[in-house]
Amino acid sequence: MMLMAVRVPLLLLLLSAACGRGNAPDAGPDPDATEQTRARIENRASVDMDIYLIRNDGQRIRLGFVAGGRTSTFALPPTLTAGTMSIRFEARPVRRSGQTVTSEPFGVSPGEEITWSISPQ
Asked: Among 65, 101, 108, 117, which one is most buried in terms of CB atoms within 10 A?
């Protein structure tokens, strides 16, 4: 019985110490999140487009979809932009009812928002 009387308070003490650590003040925003490069794609065409990022080594990576007449923003993780001096974008019509469009080269800087407008078709 004496052993039980010691275990319960000890267990409560350990639990309260563990819970207290969860109340630490927030360390603030993630520094990597503030350095996130973004691509803002304005699709002024009437056709829906699949958007690809083209690295300067020629590799194409699909970023996503932008409906006709809409604007979308895509996060560009460092894994996509690491080691590249510039990137380009390619917009491919989803239903093949338009022309593929390729952007001019854009320089890449951490935390920057790159904006590209797809001309009406």
From this structure: 108
